[in-house]
């Protein structure tokens, strides 16, 4: 089940993408496998380099019909697996195409790049981005965080040595329509496979929270004048480290406003101070109002 904001009705993702499997079931396309010691040893033996902590597991790419067991054998000679990692890696890779070295190291971007990145995240979350397959977090089925399969990194292991290990490592499967979409993304088909969009399944606020959090993990959005000011500041005096926290501290120290929302709220505060006597709305109440506006996620989505 995915995380949700306060007051939102949460729907299990078994209604959307996931499908529970038992060990008696044959391996199927789209099965998500955890990195068991047995499976990792098989992968290592094949000389596959996906052993780092950034790899959270593997996704079965081979078609289900080729994995169906008949007389203790299946049609496929090899099982194709794709490494599964955090989607923030895909976001960072996408952003790097348009960033300079300073922007990439210090996690900030122009409004133009930010908007293009938001479109990329929308495609990623709704499984419309070639080369990537998104697996939403659902603690109830064992998917403990938002994940993403990197299809260009797919590799093959012999069925004879890994089939049983893959079944034993299976966490959850995906529904037939998403198996078809995965096959299309991984193959060379020329027809589009339509699947339900995550944005239409989740409450609007919950979807926006997932999208906003994924963006915030990777980059800070800046208006062109503020972007130029920050760029020149870092060129003149490099930051102590390459974290988002470090660049946000520099933004604050320079007095920059990272978003239109910040500028709008500053102007609201000025209007309140200039036009409303303190005895009508005390300054403490005005500050409280601005805090509520600043923390409102829907307003953030509207103003940026």
Walk me through what this model shows.
This protein is α+β, with helices and mostly antiparallel strands. Among the domains are: 13-105 and 129-198, no CATH class; 261-304, no CATH class. Helix content is 47%, strand content 13%. The chain contains 14 helices and 10 strands. It has helices at residues 37-45, 64-67, 87-96, 101-106, 111-125, 159-169, 176-186, 198-201, 204-216, 224-236, 244-254, 260-275, 283-295, 297-303; strands spanning 18-19, 32-34, 57-60, 78-85, 108-110, 132-135, 147-150, 155-158, 170-174, 220-222. Strands 1, 2, 3, 4, 6, 7, 8 and 9 form an 8-stranded antiparallel beta sheet that branches.
Please give the structural blueprint.
Layout: E1 18-19, E2 32-34, H1 37-45, E3 57-60, H2 64-67, E4 78-85, H3 87-96, H4 101-106, E5 108-110, H5 111-125, E6 132-135, E7 147-150, E8 155-158, H6 159-169, E9 170-174, H7 176-186, H8 198-201, H9 204-216, E10 220-222, H10 224-236, H11 244-254, H12 260-275, H13 283-295, H14 297-303
Parallel strand pairs: 5-10
Antiparallel strand pairs: 1-9, 2-3, 2-9, 3-4, 4-7, 4-8, 6-7
Helix pairs in contact: 3-5, 12-13
